[in-house]
Amino acid sequence: MLSKFVSQTDFNSYEEFVKSFKICVPDNFNFAYDVVDEIASTTPEKIAIVWCNDKGEEAVFTFGQLKYYSDKTANFFKNAGIKKGDPVMLILKRRYEFWFCILALHKLGAVCIPATHLLTSKDIIYRNNAADIKMIVTVNEEEVIKHVENAQEESPTLKSKVLVGGSRDGWYNFNSELEKADENFVRPTGE
């Protein structure tokens, strides 16, 4: 795969590397399709993510699973109204769902805005209005939820709120939506 994106992979010296190394990025390059899904098509059982947290929870995902979950997430986001160019804020701390979401947003051509869980309502309002945020996907933590909900009234472009790991009135339940979403996502063309 590397040879698809670089002009040369073996060098005899540093000088040759400096002189000859060139990155070849196609105009329509998309990390989710051209790297992750490509690896999934050739070696679906290859491990892509090993995740754990302070509570002792662990999860391992292969490239095949990453493609599967990012396709389902892309379909969920699309069904929720997210399209090419739409900004989506992710406040997911170190959750593995971050990878499903960011790859799904790449597949849609949407703009991912990763954000810290330390943002206050004022910070979220500023970011929502500066970037015309359409959706916020966040962890199920009361403090974060409170700030997102407090920011909503002053965030006219914010249409959807998504909660990972729980349910709440006025929010999409990420886990439930992922279960319902189609597992086949077709790469969009054009707008």
Question: Can you characterise this structure?
Answer:
By secondary structure, this protein is an alpha/beta fold. It has a single domain (30-180), classed as Rossmann fold. 42% of the residues lie in helices and 17% in strands. The chain is built from eight helices and seven strands. A hairpin with a 5-residue loop joins strand 1 and strand 2. The chain is globular.
Q: What is the CA-atom radius of gyration, in angstroms?
A: 19 Å
Strand order of the largest sheet: 4-3-5-6-7
In CATH, the architecture is 3-Layer(aba) Sandwich
The beta-strand count equals 7
- Mean pLDDT, nearest integer? 95
Helix content: 40-55%
Q: What is the end-to-end distance?
A: 28 Å
- CATH fold type: Rossmann fold
Q: Tell me the structural class.
A: alpha/beta
- What is the percentage of strand-forming residues? 15-25%
The CATH class designation is Alpha Beta
Number of domains: 1
| Mass-distribution shape | globular
H/E element sequence = HHHEEHEHEHEHEEH
**Low-pLDDT stretches:** none
The biggest beta sheet, please? 5 strands, parallel
Secondary structure tally, helices: 8
